[in-house]
Design a protein that fits this description.
The structure holds two protein chains of two kinds.
Chain A (H helix, E strand, L loop, with lengths): L1 E10 L2 E11 L4 E5 L6 H8 L7 E6 L2 E2 L5 H11 E4 L11 H11 L6 H10 L15 H13 L5 E5 L7 H17 L3 E6 L10 E4 L3
Parallel strand pairs in A: 3-8, 3-9, 6-7, 7-8
Antiparallel strand pairs in A: 1-2, 1-4, 4-5
Chain B lengths: L2 H11 L1 H36 L4 E5 L3 H8 L10 E2 H8 L4 E13 L2 E6 L1 H6 L4 E4 L7 E4 L1 H7 L6 E2 L2 E2 L13 E7 L9 E4 L1 H15 L6 H7 L2 E2 L1 E6 L3 H13 L2 E4 L1 H54 L4 H40 L13 H25 L3 H7 L1
Parallel strand pairs in B: 4-10, 6-9
Antiparallel strand pairs in B: 1-12, 1-13, 2-11, 3-4, 3-8, 3-12, 5-9, 6-10, 7-9
Helix pairs in contact in B: 1-11, 2-10, 2-11, 2-12, 10-11, 10-12, 10-13, 11-12
The chains are: A alpha/beta, B alpha+beta.
């Protein structure tokens, strides 16, 4: 269960994000919708505990992200939150397998090759385990990024503009993968996008359009 | 994966910068370690050779030359002194022990030294084979001489004129090897030892040939006998105050103190060493700068990696640790490489010195100071990594990710 109350994020006096009230039940799939610059990414960062809001209350699965010390939140995020970024940001000099191990190491999770193998298998990129990100296609890289986000079995899966710069078919496939992976690990899914094509996949939406 | 492998993976990802940092550091550390090893070994070896010898008396000339030729058998002798003067001096009550040496010839680059048994005993020499020499033209070989020439008890050889053996050979007067010494770690290892009479006989023989027909020459020879140096041990510390001055002022003799001359020599060498150390310190600082620049410029490219690591659960402190450890790892590689390099340099110099029949230097000896040098190199790496690590600590995830 995720609860947001009176959330406000200001940059230099300007309010960039305002969410008066938002509740997500465990296992739901949500779409955060709005044009660029409406604070979608900021909202995801707040939910992940990467950024503290200027005001308001945020509780994610019982974790008070406002009151908890940052170091504890970092640890909690590693174990409980998977994040897929628009630019993917795979670590270039590590192999696909290395990128997933990095996620396990940084989350202080057991470094379990079987879990790495399962995550890659589930996303159909098990045969790319030894490759560097640069050797993969864009679609394969996105699958690896999703695998990295789910390898620790997160309770909350966040995706920031996962379909930007993808054609229709790829965009559908990406959303399908996120649904499947969220379901597989029983995770709550929150996708932030300005991409109208994605709308029809979600019945729960938070519209941040001004 | 752990901190070490993750740091190492980043070092491997930019081999040029890593290589440059490691190379500069290794050169700096290697220079210091190499100089330390060589100088300390030469110092201790020279100290051992000069132990128990308070004064070297020989012909007038450079006192440094007298010490180098008389004790270390390195430089050319300053000349000869009459045996009678040496004997008079030896009877002085301030003199406890006086060891006359006669130089002049060499065999295959090893000096032939005419000396009494007390010279061998002074260095605690023990026979590895054969017996001590008894009469003229018998020779005992130092351990290095026997090893490098392959000569054994019973071998015969002829000396060549000059301490480097560059002159004509004394083919008329062959030596017979009667003994081989066990290694002493002293100057004896590099010497061919023989009774003083051998040296006299060889040159007497030659002179007789050259001056054939001159009647009565032989008797005069006996009275004109000469030695090259006299190694003196004082009977009391009082001797240091009076004896050298007495010798230097009154006669054709010259007295030089090994302690004083060696201190002078190492002061001269020390200036060069200081310059070398300063140069090495500059190298190490340059290495620190290259580590800093490598890490700092890399930050720009790495900011997404760092931000992603935060999303994967890394705290700012762990990002600091990652960068800091990278600097430290680089410094460790450079320092260990430098220690290895220093020992290789010392070993190489040892091989070269051994080939030139000089005192040996080993690359396998270790000095406790090396630990401090490694620690200093690590400190340089740590300091160089501080600012980049701090920048990593301060990574603003949201802003960084918003940019890409």
């Amino acid at each position: 269960m995720i609860q947001v109350e009176g959330l406000e994020q200001r940059y230099g006096g300007e309010v960039v994000l305002c969410v008066p009230r938002w509740q997500i039940a465990a296992g739901e799939q949500w779409l955060v919708l709005g044009p660029s610059g409406c604070g979608k990414s900021t909202l995801l960062h707040v939910l992940a505990g990467l950024q503290r809001p200027s005001a308001g209350m945020v509780s994610v699965f019982g974790k008070d992200l406002i009151a908890t010390p940052q170091a504890q939140i970092d640890h909690w995020r590693g174990a409980n939150v998977g994040i897929v970024l628009q630019a993917l940001h795979l670590v270039a000099h590590l192999s696909v397998r290395g990128n997933l191990r990095l996620a396990q190491y940084l989350a202080r999770a057991p470094q379990d090759d079987a879990a790495v193998g399962r995550a890659l298998e589930a996303l159909g990129v098990a045969d790319k385990a030894g490759r560097r990100p640069a050797e993969l296609s864009q679609g394969e890289r996105q699958r690896v990024a999703i695998a990295r986000a789910v390898v620790n079995g997160p309770k909350l899966l966040l995706a920031d503009e996962p379909t930007a710069s993808l054609d229709d078919a790829s965009a559908d496939a990406a959303i399908g993968l996120l649904f499947a992976q969220a379901q597989r690990s029983g995770a709550t899914l929150v996708v932030a996008t300005h991409d109208a094509r994605v709308k029809r996949h979600f019945d729960k939406r938070l519209d941040l359009s001004p | 994966m752990n901190l070490a492998t993750l740091s190492a993976s980043y070092l491997r990802a930019r081999p040029l910068q890593t290589g440059l940092g490691v190379l500069l550091l290794a050169l700096g550390v290697g220079t210091i370690v190499g100089a330390l090893l060589v100088v300390s070994q030469l110092e201790s070896r020279m100290g051992r050779d000069a132990r128990g010898i308070d004064l070297v008396v020989g012909a007038k000339g450079s006192p440094m030359q007298l010490i180098l030729s008389g004790i270390y058998q390195l430089d050319a002798p300053t000349g000869n002194i009459p045996l009678a003067s040496a004997q008079t001096l030896a009877k002085n009550p301030l003199v406890k022990k006086a060891m006359p040496l006669a130089l002049g010839d060499a065999w295959r680059g090893f000096r032939i030294v005419g000396a009494g048994r007390e010279y061998l005993e002074h260095y605690g020499a023990e026979l590895a084979a054969g017996r001590h020499y008894g009469k003229s033209m018998e020779a005992v070989l130092g351990a290095d001489v026997a090893r490098r020439t392959g000569a054994r008890v019973g071998s015969r050889f002829v000396g060549a004129h000059g301490v480097a053996g560059e002159g004509e050979e004394h083919t008329e007067s062959p030596y017979t090897v009667v003994g081989v010494l066990a290694p002493t770690g002293s100057v004896l290892d590099r010497l061919v030892l023989t009774p003083i009479e051998s040296v006299w006989d060889v040159h007497h023989h030659e002179e007789k040939e050259h001056q054939a027909g001159h009647e009565g020459r032989e008797k005069a020879e006996d009275e004109d006998r000469e030695v090259t140096v006299l190694l003196v041990q004082y009977a009391s510390p009082l001797a240091a105050a009076t004896l050298p001055r007495a010798i230097n002022s009154k006669s054709e003799l010259q007295a030089a103190s090994p302690a004083f001359e060696m201190a002078r020599l190492f002061r001269i060498v020390g200036t060069g060493l200081e310059a070398l150390r300063a140069f090495a310190a500059v190298l190490i600082l340059a290495a620190g700068l290259s580590v800093f620049i490598a890490l700092y410029t890399e930050l720009e490219e790495r900011r997404y990696d760092l931000a992603v690591m935060r999303t994967l659960g890394a705290s700012p402190a762990r990002l600091f640790g990652l960068l800091f450890f990278e600097g430290l790892l680089l410094a460790l590689l450079g320092a260990l490489g430098g220690v290895l390099l220093g020992h290789v340099v010392a070993a190489g110099l040892g091989v070269w010195l051994a080939a030139a029949e000089q005192p040996a230097v080993s690359g396998l000896a270790f000095r406790v100071e090396e630990v401090w040098i490694v620690a200093a190199a690590l400190a340089v790496g740590a300091v160089a990594a501080l600012l980049p690590a701090w920048r990593a600590y301060r990574t603003d995830v949201s802003r960084t990710l918003a940019q890409g």
